[in-house]
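Hi R.,

Here's the chain you asked about this morning:
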Amino acid sequence: MDILGASGEQPATLVGARRFAIHATQMVDVTVEWPDGRRESHRLGAESVDDSLEPGDAVLVQRVMAMITGVRRAVEG
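And here is the predicted structure, written out as tokens:
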């Protein structure tokens, strides 16, 4: 993450991911919980969220200008 906290990648836990379509465009409302217990929700295009994620999964959250822009499974190991 940069010095201003505006962009980068951070670990979190997926709380929920709701997939739906708006005029045939696939979207996902995601909610993540940060290690300090704060929760944050954003609406993303479906291409920005791994398909196989389930609530409780460890994820890496990509951020730009303090907005969530992507969510992917954290690599274990």
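One quick note: The CA atoms of residues 54 and 66 lie 24 Å apart.

Cheers,
M.
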